Each structure stands twice: as structure tokens, then as C-alpha cells.
Amino acid sequence: MFTQSEENYLKAIFQLQEEIEGGISTSSLSEKLETKAASVTEMLKRLSDKELVDYQKYYGVQLTESGRKQALLIVRKHRLWEYFLVERLNFNWDEVHEVAEQLEHIKSPKLVEELDSFLGRPEYDPHGDPIPDKHGKLPKSPTKKLSQLKLGDHGICKGFNDNSSAFLQFLDKQNIGLHTPIEVLHIETFDESMTIKIAQREVLLSKTATDNIYIDNIATEA
Amino acid sequence: MFTQSEENYLKAIFQLQEEIEGGISTSSLSEKLETKAASVTEMLKRLSDKELVDYQKYYGVQLTESGRKQALLIVRKHRLWEYFLVERLNFNWDEVHEVAEQLEHIKSPKLVEELDSFLGRPEYDPHGDPIPDKHGKLPKSPTKKLSQLKLGDHGICKGFNDNSSAFLQFLDKQNIGLHTPIEVLHIETFDESMTIKIAQREVLLSKTATDNIYIDNIATEA
DNA sequence: TATAATATTTAGGCAAACCTAATTATTTAT
DNA sequence: ATAAATAATTAGGTTTGCCTAAATATTATA
Ligand SMILES: [Mn+2]
Ligand SMILES: [Mn+2]
Ligand SMILES: [Mn+2]
Ligand SMILES: [Mn+2]
């Protein structure tokens, strides 16, 4: 059994590994977990002793098979609870993260299994992020960003890179949500901002915004 | 905001105060929380500094108004989660305690309110224990023990003093549950054991058992 | 009432998880 | 290649929450 802190580190390492390949630096963990670098170094030594990570001083850290398995379980719990909060308890998608951050540490294999079954074994959380199954297998998720689409392309929003409350509330305001169909109406050349059609309305999005939106079911205009 | 450990102490003091009047002793807390007396003394000093308890060295401890309010919230969360686990997630009543022991520490006022509403604002948990409402008000619960009934009395099981897995499984085996109607068929004079009628079957219960079963809707035979 | 038994507190330690400041290793720039 | 800048680690502290052993207060008993 692991402490909450150990679990938070494992999850953070896992998430950084999804973005960056190679060893994860002390400073990136320090930033993600909002702790000082010295605290990270200390914890990495502990995780290394428990064989959850491969850690080489000065050269970063990577999950072992055992560490990855554990990280996937925490991600699974986090996302199942988020789904529960939104779909059953009337939470908005921008209010679930904090609470799921606590609930993900509840230890009870039966609880995870029964919750999953109660929810109908969902594949994606309220932010479109894939929920690992019992064996740690992740359903596939879209890799194309809105910023990569061409003029006239159609598609459907399937995920977001930034799950901050601020970004999610911005999306709410623009009527952009999971499964929202969109069409690229115009691309500004000098700053790559895009004009998008969403449910009859035209919306202007910055490159920063379009970089954080994942699109699937892409169809190019005939 | 309080630590998990502080919350566990507050709840333990609250529960001992329900049973015993007057100051709660260090040793009774030590036993209930399975920690050493020295650790209890230390924590009582901390809780006293935070004005959650009135503590007088050598003469026990009592909750302040603020401490009682906090304890009631933890009890509320514990019992709501137990209800959720049994009524929605197919847990048996003897498997919920451990998990609720963890879930009761999740901090989110919205979660408590929405969970309560989702569950239909239940008044009693799966063991018949009363669930405090939002304001800390407890619905009334039966005070008569089965051991206090007379020959020929009828009644309905409404709660249990011992929520241990062992006792609950014993009750399952005897087909005794919440809301089960019973009738006193015989009382043995020398050891106060009772023969009870439960759904056509006759069951013999020791004084230890009948002392741990609460009965309501008592009707004396005409 | 003095003494023995019991309960409680104090003293001193330890591990987890954080911190700041100082040191050392690595990387970048001249 | 050396020096400067940056990143990471080590050293030394702190708080929480637990422990054992020793000291002290309370309660029971003779
Ligand atoms: Mn967390
Ligand atoms: Mn999410
Ligand atoms: Mn608890
Ligand atoms: Mn209960």
C-alpha cells in the first residue's frame, strides 16, 4: 500500500511521460506537484527503493512496470470519480478535479469495480480523457489538435489538453463541449487564430486555445 | 480544515460521549483508536489548542460546540457513504465500514450535499444508525434493547450496538436484519438467553446478543 | 492514612513529507 | 576549454503522528 503523496508522485510521473519521452526531470515534477525540488529528490529516492521508478541522479526518472500499473490505477479511479460527480451528482466539469484528487486515493478494489459497473463502464471522463480499464488498458484517444485542421475541415471535439477551471469555463462560454461538432471557417495567417462554426455561431479562437482542443471524426470539405 | 487523524479523534470522542456521560478518558480513546495512551494525550493537547475539546489533565476530555459540530459532519459523511455503498454499489452491510472510514474524510461541502440529495436524504444508515442532517440534527433512534423486552412482546429490529463484521455476519446467518419483525417466545432465567420468533423460525440468542439489538414499535401481548 | 495498583503524562525517538540554504553536477555560452 | 548559468542534490530543520520507557498523579485497598 502506498501513501497519498507517493501516489501523487506516481501519477505525475505517468502524466509527464505521456507528454515527454525520456527521463522526467526533477524540476518538471517540482512544478507539476507544486513542491520544492529538494522534496522531489527525496521522494524519488524513496520510490526508487520501493522499485516503483528507475531513478538516476541528475538524469531524471521513469516508471517501472510496477509503478506504471499503480499509476494507471490512480488515473482510473480519478477519472471514474470525475464521471460519477458529473453524471450522477450534478457537478459541472470544471468543479470535479479537486474532489477527484482526494477520491482517487480511496483504497478498495471492490469500490472501484462496483463504481465502474454502476456507471456503465464509461470509456472517457467528462473532459474526454480515456479511463483505463481493470487491466490498465486505455481506450484510444484522438491525437489531432484543432490547430492542425485545414480551412473547411469538419470534426468533433473529443478532448482538451488543459483541464484548468479557467479554460473549461472559457469553453462553456463559447458553447464548446465534448462531442461538439465544429467547422473551420477561417485561419488568420499572421497569428494562426481560427474562426470556427459552432452550432450556427461563429467563434474566434487563439492559437493557444486551438492547441488545447483535440478533434476526431475529421472530414475535409469536398 | 482538520487532518484525518484529528477527525478520527473527534469522531471517537463524540461516539464515546453518546455512551458514557462525563469526561472521556485517555484510555478509552486509546482503546477505541488502537493507539497508545501517550499518543492520545499528545493529540488532546493539540485539539485543545484548536478549541475543539475541553481537556483537563487527568480528568478526561469533552467536545466543545465547535468540536461537536465537526464530529457530526464526519458521522454524517460516514453514514451517507455507507448508505451509498449498500444501496447503490451492492456492498453487504458488513463490508462498508472500512471504506466509509476513508470516505468520511473527503472534503467537499458540495459533494456531501449532492450525495445526500442523490440518495434521497436517507435518515438511517445500513446499520440503523441515524444520519445527521445538514445542520447536525439527528433523527431519533430507538433506546430499548431486545434484552429489555418481556415474554410475548413483539417489535421490529431498528439498530445494533455492535457494528463489527463478526456480529453483522452472525445476524445475517440468523436472518436478522434492519426492519425484521421479532417476537419473544421464551426467556431463560439463569442466563437471560432468549428464544425469538423470526419469520416462522425460532432462534436462540445469548444475553450478549440481545444487549446489542435495538427494538422499536414494541407491542405487548394482550 | 499509608501503600499498592492503575491511569496518565512527560521525555526522548522515529518516519514521512515538507521546507531553506549550501553544495555540487550538468549544461550553455563565451 | 573555461567560465557562467542552471539544475539537482545534500545538509540541516520543522510539523504531524506515532512509539517506548520513565515519571507522576489518581484511585483503590489494606
Ligand atoms: Mn491526489
Ligand atoms: Mn479529467
Ligand atoms: Mn476515519
Ligand atoms: Mn454504520
Mean pLDDT of chain A: 96
Low-confidence stretches of chain A are none
CATH superfamily of the domain at 144-220 in chain A: Ferrous iron transport protein A (FeoA)
Taking all Cα atoms into account, the compactness measure Rg of chain A is: 19 Å
Q: What's the CATH C level of the domain at 144-220 in chain A?
A: Mainly Beta
Q: Which structural class should the secondary elements of chain A be placed in?
A: alpha+beta
Task: Summarize the structure in words.
The structure is a homodimer of 222-residue chains. Chain A is α+β, with helices and mostly antiparallel strands and 222 residues long. Among the domains of chain A are: 60 residues, Orthogonal Bundle (Arc Repressor Mutant, subunit A); 77 residues, Ferrous iron transport protein A (FeoA) (SH3 type barrels, Roll), CATH 2.30.30.90. A five-stranded antiparallel sheet of chain A has the order 6-5-4-3-7. A two-stranded antiparallel sheet of chain A has the order 1-2. The radius of gyration of chain A is 19 Å and the shape is globular. The relative contact order of chain A is 0.10. The mean pLDDT of chain A is 96. One manganese (II) ion binds next to loops of chain B. The first copy, chain A, binds a DNA duplex (30 and 30 nucleotides) through helix 3.
